[in-house]
Design brief:
heterodimer; A: about 450 residues; alpha/beta; Rossmann fold; 7-stranded mixed beta sheet; 5-stranded parallel beta sheet; 14 helices; about 40% helix; globular; B: about 350 residues; mainly alpha; ABC transporter involved in vitamin B12 uptake, BtuC; two-stranded antiparallel sheet
Chain lengths: ~450, ~350
Amino acid sequence: MFRPSNGMSRRRLIKTGMAGILATGVSPLIFSKGAWAQEFCNNPTGATVTFGLNLPLTGAYAEEGADEQKAYELAIKHLNGEGDGGLINVLKPTALKGNGILGKKVEYVTSDSQTLSDVARAGATRMIERDGAIMITGGSSSGEAIAVQSLCQEMGVIFMAGLTHSNDTTGKDKRRYGFRHFFNAYQSGIGLGPVLGKEYGNERRAYHLTADYTWGWTQQESIKNATEALGWETVQTVLTPLGAGDFSQFLTPVLNSGADVLILNHYGNDMVNSLTQAVQFGMRDRQANGKNFEIVTPLISELMAKGAGENVKGIFGTSNWHWALQDEGSQAFTRSFGAAYGSPPSQAAHTAYVQALLYADAVERAGTFYPPEVIKALEGHEFDGMGNGPTLYRAEDHQCMKSVLVVRGNENPTSQFDVLNVVQEVSREDSTYDPAMFGGDLGPAEPAPLCT
Amino acid sequence: MFEVIFLQLLNGLDKGSAYALIALGLTLVFGTLGVVNFAHGALFMLGAFCAVAFRRLLTLETVTLDPTRLSPWGQPLEVRAPVVQAWFGDFGAVLVNYSVPISLLLAIPVMLIIGVAMERGLIKHFYKRPHAEQILVTFGLAIVLAEIVKATFGPNPIPQPMPTDLRGAADIGAFFGMQANVITYPLWRLIYFVFSLLIIGAVFAFLQFTTFGMVVRAGMADRETVGLLGIDIDRRFTIMFGIAAVVAGMAGVMYTPLLPPNYTLGMDFLVISFVVVVVGGMGSLPGAVAAGFLLGILQSFASMTQVKAIVPGIDQIIIYLVAVVILLLRPRGLLGRRGMMEA
């Protein structure tokens, strides 16, 4: 039997040796390759992985929320290898295999954010803590997006924003764990300004009615800057509460304000109501300053156009995407969505679907669900085939850089879905801006917080 | 400046019309039955959904597939044909166009039945219970009704177009010989204002000039004595609850072109209507109507940019601010009666 000369037993020697190894810090070098695999929030250890869908199913933006839910369900089907595969077939490059994510079947939980930031944050917390969501996605309001994005940074869970258009989402409130595919108010201004100048001339007086929260403020600022650069004068800017319903008391002062353009910085049901009521006030039949009175809705969607009916005809706005685009990706998504639900997808549905796929693709490329590695895979990622042409997920602010659409309410619709026409596609180069322009700090990816 | 003030005044009267109509019904219930009915806003919402249901019935369509035309997703195009127009031709088109005012004919009996059923089925069991319990049960009922509507019609607002002839704005200035296009106001909003005056006038006339109304007013003043005279006052009060429901329902029907209704419509109006009732004086019908119009006008003027430049955000709090001031100066409200909720 081996017995050291100092009388130490073999067992004691091994114990001492191991203690020495651990104490000298060698162990991290031995185990570091997979150490983080166990050390992050909601690491999926079973055969499934859960997405947390935070959707405004009630409230001012409920219609967008319902369409987003359909899109997420479709995306999850496609990720799991069901259906026709949708955009997985056209995404370039892609690591997606149609067998879930890293071989795990994708499941989902939902929460109704009620178009309220505090409810959205509470819902996201619940889905992370109770349901073990690996990623949170959805929302149709920038207020929600910013609140949830901040929470996700604190909890170490990636947030793939749904419809959010405020400059602040990837500006002063940007977060390392938050990513936005949707365009923003500044890009709306870049796209819409020249078209408004061409259509309505350079001598106009604009009156803004603006939703009183982050999105409204930044859109008003962006459109005001874009129109004033044309030579327009801003007569008045008025903030209106989100979900006001009846806007008549805000519309009445517009009539004799000297303005000849009304700019409605509203979205969802608010825009449907304010536009409908503005038309009821006879604003589209008026003359002011010797010109036809015009209404502009800088951000508009097919759902809103459908809700506003006749009133939207001829009205200019911008969109992130439109189902009638002729590229392969847009056509593939419209086919899949239409076959599943009997109507073409909205821009909210499109961005939701794309975000789900981009997250899954990033995980596949990273080879892990560990958020800091997934973040690295998304940052600076170039892809194509998702309906907006070649797109860059910019590393500096997590904003997607891609083309932007200027649209107009269709004067002669051929079907109930044919409500908006694309009048101009603003290229990615033209809609790109300095990522430092809106300030903010992404913050760190590591150490990845643990959602305990 | 005159036209600006005049337009805000019109807007205030228009907003006040809805407040006054809802507050009138609330006061009728409180004045007769002594019940604080938090489900009254839900009755306004149910009325609005009578219009929605009626229009859905009128716009039922037959759907056929046209294999020669494809949808954007490559399936045979659905061709929809309205049934009512197919059956009745031009008359069917008129029915659809005027669906909102015509649905008043549906709303009146439906709301009367709902009101009477509500009173007999639930609220009568709470007459002798404390006001807090009445509030709880009626608030619970309001939530249940809202959820039923949400489950049936979905969460999104459902636009109800006004008749094509009544769209657009009326040139009031030109009507009074002023310059054209200076004072214009949406025609339907003017119709709503006149409609509310007619309903309010009808309720007051009913109470003032009919035997039934006289008995009800006597019952409101002294229920026990009227009962001792052998009059079944409870039955009359049940009918008054039904009438209050009809008033709320009709107000809801006519409001649908102004604001597409969804299940939250009742709650949106309820809080403000209670403030109106309190400001007007609990149990006072003229007080409710006067306070409704007064608060509507104040809210409208508070939204003027010139006013908000002096006190930012005043439009959001003006109603509650006025309520506080009036209750401090006149604790029973503007026209409140002694003894109401003062036991």
